[in-house]
Amino acid sequence: MVGLGIIFAPMFGAALVYFLTRNAQHIAKYIALGWFLVLFFISFYWYKHLPSDGSFLYLGEFLKVPQFAFSLTLQIDALSVAMLLLTAALLVLVVFTSWEEKKQAAYFSLLIFFSGPIFGVFMTTNVLWFFMFWELTLVPMLFLVGIWGAENRIYAAIKFFIYTHVFAMFMFVGFYLLFAQTGVWDLLTIKEALLATPALIWWLMFLGFAAKLPVFPFHTWLPDAHVQAPSSISVLLAGVLLKMGAYGLIRFTVELMPVSTLLFAKWMLIFGLITTLYAGFLAIYERHIKKMVAYSSISHMGLVVVAISTMTYDGLSASLYEMIGHALVISPLFLIAGWLHHKTHTWYMDEMGGIMKKAPYVSAIFILAGMAALGLPGTMGFVGELTIIVSAVKAYGWWIAVIAIAGLISAGYIIWAIRRVIHGPMSEKVAKADFSMHFAEKFALSVFAFLIVYFGINPQPIFDLANKAFSFLGGM
Amino acid sequence: MNNAVFILLTAPFVGAVLAYVLGKVKRELAFWVAEVVGFVLFLASVVLFLKYSDTVIDIDYTWIAYGNLQLPFGIYIDHLSIVMLLVATGLGFLDIHFAHDYMGEDPDQPRYYAKVLFFIGGMILLVITKDLIGAFVGWEFMGLASYLLISFWYYKHSAANAGMQAFLYTRFGDIFILAAIALLMYYVGTVNLVELNKLADAGQIDKTIALVVALFIFMGAIGKSGQFPLYPWLMNAMEGPTTVSALIHGATMVNSGIYIVARLFDFFSYTDALFVVANVAALSAFIGSTSALVQKEIKKILAYSTMSHLSIAFVGLGVGSLAAGMLHLVNHAIFKALLFLSAGAVIYIAHHQKDAWKLGGLIKTAPFVALFMAMGSLSLAGVPPFSGFFSKEMVVAAAWEWGNGFTKTFVTIAALLSIAYITRLWILIFLGEPRHESIGGSVHKPSNLWMRLPLGILAFLTLFISIWQSDIIRYITGGEVVEPHVAGLTAFMLTGMLILFLIVVGLYVKGLNLLYKISSHHFVQTIHQVLFNGYYVEAMITWVSKNIIVGAIAKSARWFDTYVVDYIVNKTVDFTYAVYKIFRAGHSGKIGTYMGQFVLGVAIIVIAILIIVKGL
Questions:
Q1: Pairing between strand A57-65 and B62-66?
Q2: How many angstroms separate the CA atoms of A331 and A448, rounded?
Q3: Main-chain dihedrals φ then ψ at residue B385, nearest 5 degrees
Q4: Cα(B27)–Cα(A407) distance, integer angstroms
């Protein structure tokens, strides 16, 4: 029942929170914070109680419809738990980073609502419910971007919504074809019943997840959405929503259809490689600070796709580490990019400069997170990059070592960004701006910085979880 | 784990945090934290030196176990590591000590000392790790630290650009090491540096793979140690505080490339990669020494000389003499630290005037600094009995004995030219009359304790370290080495140096007019420009990155993204809208339209039915 509760309680409770706090706006964030902490501790409890052999922890079967053999089956394995912990942690931190957001009652009610379906996505093994939760996460996001976003928010919100919705339809057709073939909706049962899968199903699934990740050429919604979204929502978009794509890719292609995936792994690799390099070059050319970070985010997700495409035990472990690393590294960059725009009223990096003098603490965290993004040792970025390159070379041979170039491209855009934003003489816009920051936001940034370094030096806890998640690939 | 090793691993990083935090409370505390930590690190290295004269420290540790793979992070300290540790921590400590006055007025001291300690920590990490992964971690730490220190005065355009350049140039080399790690994991199954040497000795690695890996690692070394073509960052790095230059050029960063080749010496010699090392290094030595002849800034002259002397050390390794290369590395580290710190003292005295042409006559105001700098210069020039003479002689002899014609010629030219540029520099600073108003009148007086003492210690070392020279060689190589011996080489070198010395003295002391006349000639001007700009390598790299990488590749990616990918997305929307409009036309809200549609619909149905019925 706990499982069912943490999915549906926020979806129904959100309205209640809104009406309760409408006249006392500042209370909403405490309710949200409390709830997200509860989510975190429950996820942590599950993490501690995972079966040691890498199988699923069964949480129950709800809302049965016996006529159709259909029910909401909740069960989680190490991969889900990793995602749940990440989601809950980001939600908690996002409350701190949105401490001074406007219209708090509505904002935090939507965040609380969002926590329901996003947990559902990672917890259920019923593909139809998975799809419903997947779609439901879009609704609060649409409003969060559309109401609290920047100048061009409506366009971005609607583009984001329609784009990902349309591609979810491909996925849905894929799910339906799976059902038509096997007659069941539960992922684990499908896996047993499934003999051979037509290429069509694989490609439909891949398209659905590729647009979410996003993979070139389905990425254009992301820069728009990220730029217009408030920074805290960018954190959720990059940290959680993109991870849904990677999660789906692992669950529904690698785990469900290993044979087809092996067949099409080369395509996945090509998409991943192109995404990494292409988005990297876009980031180099970009003047707009938040778009630069957004392209950097796409570029790193390309590496995740490369790692998934290896279809090996170590490759997938590395991909899960990089997913978590990406979330923790890109979040402070988004937060600071948005904050700088808020303070200097410009998006363009060449109009900033000399921030270091006025905001040394934030600058230091920007440099640290930037270093993590370009893969400097001692941070999560390095471990992710190193493990992915090592396992990709192991899977594909020597030539894949060229993805080391990604480390140079990212150095290019990050260092150049630091040069233009943090270093250099102080620009007029910076000189005029007041760079005070609320304590809650500083706290959240410090937590991100701490996690980046802590798991960069001691990555084994995450890899233990990842190894557990993919131990079924042990022989590969 | 051994206590001394534990201190070496943790103290720099803990110290960096402490220096920053305590420095924020009270500014002087930052210096004292750094001073104490620097001294403790040096003591720990000395303890290792005394305790481990005939054993090695060897610790295995698995850092990351993921899937079926294990990435190790071991500790391995042998004589080579201990020598590097002594150089890094000893010179590092003196550098921190010297900074007390040199950086004394800077408001950002906490930041400065935190970065310096982090820097030294990176070097320590590099020299005590057993695996290429650990070495890469230390390697990159230094990359970050040097970046932050070079752009320490970040509010200056030039300093911010120089830092960016340093990071990107060295990073370009570093990604090859990252690729080398992956290739080693795949083909050899180990990144253990000691193991790699053993496998190479036993001939158990595929030669092609080993060659590729060795060249990749050497690419990293080219970036860090400022070899052709990735050297321009080394010159622009002079934008940082002079104490940082001393740290980069003497104690830490630039030595790392030579260290990694020395550490993998057996592996490199197994693969013929040493041939490439020797030739690239000889070319770099030539470029560095000729460019140093015409530079104006004190620090740029020293920077080109660093490049040239690192290359000489590399040539020593490249032609197969580990002893000659490492000995020159150690000697160079000491005299270059001395030269940079004396240059720092000069700049301090002259109120941050760095242009050698605007100084002059400083021998009267700073006789001690002049003496110390002269000792460093003589050592760099290779005048007996200073340390530089012996090691340089050894490298050149080795090159004559084992190197090819190219290596031999270029390294000899580079070795000879060092006396010319360093004499020129010393004369410009200390002799003649003051050429600029900034050094007339009041000057900063260097204090005995903070400035002259470290200079004195270093000067002492340059003069007397060669007494223990054969012990050092034996200590590093672990046995007797075949010393190259070329008859008549010493006489040839000394004669050449004397001639060059006399020319330079003649031109710069007595014949300035003649010098001006020569240099105004068109042909000389052209050569001067080429040398002054470091053979335009920087201009070429800048052109490529600006016009090819950003201007062509990134720009076309951007164009493609806007006008193809996103265009299609938006056109899809337009298409949907167009379809909607067609259907919308039918829903005009006018009763007549609906009636017409009704009639049309009925007609179609009737016709359809008729066709079906008839068809049946």
A1: unpaired
A2: 8
A3: -100, 25
A4: 37
A16, HSE (Cβ side, Cα atoms, 13 Å)? 8
Give the residues across from B118 on adjacent strands. none
Looking from the CA of A74 toward its CB, the CA atoms found within 13 Å total 21
Cis before B385 (ω within 30):
yes
Residue B435 has pLDDT above 80, yes or no: no
The enclosing H or E element of B64 equals strand B62-66
Residues of chain B in contact with residue A407, where contact means CB-CB under 8 angstroms, are 171, 174-175, 178
**Rounded CA gap, B99 and B102, in Å?**
5
In chain A, what is the straight-line distance between the N-terminal and C-terminal CA atoms, in Å? 37
Q: Please determine, for residue B146, whether its predicted confidence score (pLDDT) is greater than 70.
A: yes
Residue B359 has pLDDT above 70, yes or no: yes
Phi/psi for B26 (5° steps) reads -145, 125
Q: How is residue B497 written in tokens?
A: 């140096």
Task: Give the max Cα distance, chain A.
Answer: 71
Q: B185: which chain A residues are within 8 Å (Cβ-Cβ)?
A: 390, 393-394
Q: Which of B89, B145, B121, B110 is nearest to B10 (CA)?
A: B121
Backbone φ and ψ for A70, nearest 5 degrees, come out as -125, 135
Q: What is the ipTM of this complex?
A: 0.91
- Which of A245, A232, A10 has the alpha carbon at shortest distance from A141? A232
Contacts of B555 in chain A (CB under 8 A): 285
Q: Which residues of A179-208 are buried (b: 16+ CB within 10 A; e: fewer)?
A: eebbebbbbbbbeeebeebeeebbbbbbbb
Q: Which residues are CB-neighbours of A12 under 8 A, at least 6 positions away? A: none
Q: How confident is the model at residue B141 (pLDDT cuts 50, 70, 90)?
A: very high
Residue B554 has pLDDT above 80, yes or no: yes
pLDDT at B576 over 70: yes
Nearest-neighbour CA in chain B from A231: distance (Å): 23
**Residues with Cβ < 8 Å from B321, sequence gap 6 or more?**
B394, B395, B398, B402, B481, B484
- B66 in A contact zone (CB under 8 Å): yes
Q: Which residues of B touch A412 (CB under 8 A)?
A: 168, 549
| Residue B443 confidence class, pLDDT cut points 50, 70, 90 | low
Sequence ranges of the domains in chain A: 2-473
Structure tokens at B590: 């006018």
- Return the domain boundaries, chain B: 1-271, 305-532, 586-616
In the predicted structure, residue B296 carries a pLDDT above the cut 90: no
* pLDDT tens readout for residues B128-137: 999 999 999 9
Amino acid in position A57: L
Residues lower than pLDDT 70 in chain A: 195, 474-476
What separation in angstroms does the CA of A200 have from each of A213, A245, A351, B43? Answer: 20, 19, 49, 68
Q: Strand A70-76 vs strand B69-72: parallel, antiparallel, or unpaired? A: unpaired
**Whole-structure pTM value:** 0.92
Model confidence at B518: pLDDT above 90: no
Does the bond joining A425 to the residue before it have cis omega, within 30 degrees of 0?
Answer: no
Smallest Cα distance from B270 to chain A, Å: 21
Calculate the average pLDDT of chain B. Answer: 88
**Burial level of A472, CB count in 10 A (0-12/13-18/19+)?**
middle
Q: What pLDDT band is residue B440 in, cutting at 50, 70 and 90? A: low
The predicted pLDDT at position B140 comes to 93
> Is residue B1 over pLDDT 70?
no
What pLDDT is recorded for position A70?
84
Nearest CA-CA distance, residue A452 and chain B, Å: 16
Please give the pLDDT value at position A454. 95
Q: Which of A311, A303, A450 is nearest to A384 (CA)?
A: A303
